[in-house]
Amino acid sequence: MGLMFRLFCSRPMSLMAFLCLHLCLLCSISPSQALKDDKNPTVYEILQQYNFPIGLLPKGAVGYELENKTGRFTAFLGNKCSFSLEGSYQLRYQSTIKGYISEGKLRSLEGVSVKVLFLWLNIVEVTRSDDALDFSVGIASASFPIDNFVERPQCGCGLDCGNGQVRMIGKNPFVDSY
């Protein structure tokens, strides 16, 4: 390939020379350099820009789409994901989570559910109120301190992933119904 490259690049300055020059430049940039130059925020940084903690999504989100004008938001996880928190809250994430995001509010959510007693209920809205997050399943809602969401849970094990300590999520005995 080196000889062929030299043959094509040895011609007078032309389209071929221009292409060879760009090929040389592209080959000299390593993938890690290309990633460092990427200015796109991560999905977790997008959550923070809208005043949400990163712990709303589990570790391993692989991308997102955001329509700035409408707030239409789609987050992509590598796979479906589920885990328990404190052994009493079971959460399930689909591989794609959709909804609309605005300052302190996620609405029309699809792809996240919580197990209440023996039923799986879709979380349809998350609202930030000062230092608390309110989660709505449509007919009922529950509020939790925002400090419970500073860490990203891990699929399969939540916040208890081999370190032997379970980080307790603050319980709120009050559940509001509409």
Automatic annotation (TrEMBL):
Keyword Transmembrane: no
SUPFAM superfamilies, per the entry: At5g01610-like
Keyword Signal on entry: yes
Keywords attached to this entry: Signal
Signal peptide start-end: 1-34
Highest taxon listed in the record's lineage: Eukaryota
PANTHER family (alphabetical): OS05G0362300 PROTEIN, T31J12.3 PROTEIN-RELATED
Protein name according to UniProt: Uncharacterized protein
